[in-house]
Amino acid sequence: MSSQKQETVRRLAAPDIRARKGQEPLVCLTAYDAPTAALLDEHCDLLLVGDSVGMVVHGLPNTVGVTLEMMILHGQAVMRGARRAMVVIDMPFGSYEAGKEQAYENCARVMKETGAQGVKLESGPTVPQTIDYLVQRGIPVMGHVGLRPQAVLTDGAFKAKGRTDDERLRVMAEAEATADAGAFSIVIEGVAEQLARDITAAVDKPTIGIGASSACDGQILVTHDMLGLFDWTPKFVRRYGDMKGEIDRAVAAYASDVRARRFPAEVETYFSKKPATP
User: Fold this and answer.
1) Dihedral angle computed from the Cα positions of residues 161, 165, 170 and 176, in that order, rounded to the nearest 10 degrees
2) Alpha-carbon distance 108 to 34, whole Å?
3) What share of the chain in percent tops pLDDT 90?
4) For the segment 23-69, what is each residue's pLDDT rounded down to a tens digit?
5) 174 annotated active-site
6) Ranges of residues in the chain whose predicted pLDDT is under 70
7) Cα–Cα distance for residue pair 243/231, rounded to 1 Å
């Protein structure tokens, strides 16, 4: 044990999340910066530095253009803000598909440079073998099945999955293979309620739903969607705030005060010190 003073708040890790299977639902949200992470940390079990950052923060049309450097930068910021919640970082498109060795090199780099407690990989035919390879080498992995945002160029759009018998069988098989490979939890995105319920019952790892009903062991949303920062949100999002409206009102008031020279007022202005009286 190091003589260096240890953190007084213990951060949640993969075994804590895995132990929540069938217990109190896991609360998860996305985070991309330190101030937001600090606000979410008190309420969440897990913060995901999602590759959705490409669309939400950088204005990209999808997640395919997200780079490893972007994920590391945002991961470092979130780790500075969060103290208690487990932090998991999405591995971006192209960073793990070429082979197990490539995946290990990139995942190890992400964990070393950010200090995060795990990574997330989207499913695919070769991904379970990669997950097993990573877990055997000490990297906690979260899986992701169903709608896969990184496959949008193959699918043509963000489409819900599991609507046909073939799709249901494929998604179920991917979920079971992901769990068997050693993933500590599995995100299920954009599938019908019954399929989410069947997957949750079939695997021994907690499932975290996004557009997958309350049948899962936990839920995750994109924080910006949940806070109401965009005009449009997917069907599965419930808006818990109107931050877009609040920001608009605040900026409009600021602009009005500046144009009318009401801001800055005397209270916000510095003045020269009066000379000391002899």
Assistant:
1) 100
2) 22
3) 85
4) 999 999 999 999 999 999 999 999 999 999 999 999 999 999 999 99
5) no
6) 1-7, 151-161, 278
7) 11
List all residues 6 or more positions away from 193 whose beta carbon is below 8 Å from its beta carbon: 212, 213, 215
Active site residue: 105, 174, 189, 193, which one? Answer: 189
Residue 30: strand pairing partners? 48
Is-contact 46 117, C-beta < 8 A? no
How far are the Cα atoms of 105, 115, 142, 199, 211 from residue 112, in angstroms, in the given order? 11, 6, 17, 32, 32
CA torsion angle for 188, 193, 197, 200 (degrees, to 10)?
Answer: 10
